[in-house]
Amino acid sequence: xxxxxxxxxxxxxxxxxxxxxxxxxxxxxxxxxxxxxxxxxxxxxxxxxxxxxxxxxxxxxxxxxxxxxxxxxxxxxxxxxxxxxxxxxxxxxxxxxxxxxxxxxxxxxxxxxxxxxxxxxxxxxxxxxxxxxxxxxxxxxxxxxxxxxxxxxxxxxxxxxxxxxxxxxxxxxxxxxxxxxxxxxxxxxxxxxxxxxxxxxxxxxxxxxxxxxxxxxxxxxxxxxxxxxxxxxxxxxxxxxxxxxxxxxxxxxxxxxxxxxxxxxxxxxxxxxxxxxxxxxxxxxxxxxxxxxxxxxxxxxxxxxxxxxxxxxxxxxxxxxxxxxxxxxxxxxxxx
Length: 336
Ligand code: WQD
Fold this sequence. Notes:
By secondary structure, the chain is α/β, with parallel strands linked by helices. The chain is built from eleven helices and 14 strands. Helix 3 packs across helix 5, helix 7 (200-208) runs parallel beside helix 9 and helix 9 (267-278) packs across helix 11 (316-329).
């Protein structure tokens, strides 16, 4: 299929582009590069051995999305575009609603105008009102969430459901990511956060690289096996493969599935995996809990296994090894 990836220059989009091409699909990327680099698309093209056209622009611009769809004969859209920093969303709610909801609505409208009915949406486990262990898709989702970022994702899920009710020909998949980590095994592409990383894995990678002085562990008094927060760390290539499976199994209506491993890893598990990979201890200190953090957030991935015939195959150790290779070879990310 000829697939448009909005926000496709980002961490998950660039990895998904490669896997789509490996499965015989044709990929076009639309990205405003506000939180991504053109270099990521160049490297993904090189790794895939196929040119990936890049349209630089705003996925909230319905005309632009429509022109891109028409120009490239697009048959399906995977919508990654959007702001994704939880903390920033609390400080800039209006920007998050404008950008995240605006780009989803503009993309769906452009698709309708051009008769494109296949849509995969990049959602998140942050839509669950009560994080916990082995969360199923039936767990309560709403807008009573600790941050506007998660609320935008829950609202877009509702928009997709309403669009499907209005147009039964729409074939949609909503993918609720847990914690995406890792990098392509080549070390050529990976997560390239701007500024100080909010997320654990890139932060530990920068400590290991000497870019950051020490890891601050946000609390070790949670009710978990070692007191630190437990999350479902899913390798970005497993996640990318989940997108291809969802795309290839689209049917009329909306299928919502968790993309996670079903296994939990603690902050110490990640730290110790990194220390084993680099062969030395990494400086760290336990500090106060981060407001809004849950003790545990892991997926029940059974529905994805069943409906997509997909399951993760890579371990946390694989993700740490791949992250370190990317970090070591690209200490300044795509900035070179
Ligand atoms: C993981 C664990 C922290 C940093 C994110 C966001 C969002 C989502 C992915 C898209 C927690 C601990 C972290 C640090 C630490 N993306 N930690 N020191 O909070 O599960 O959520 O998931 O939807 O980005 O919702 O991910 O990586 O920030 O934290 O101790 O410097 O690591 O307390 O237990 P999180 P995270």
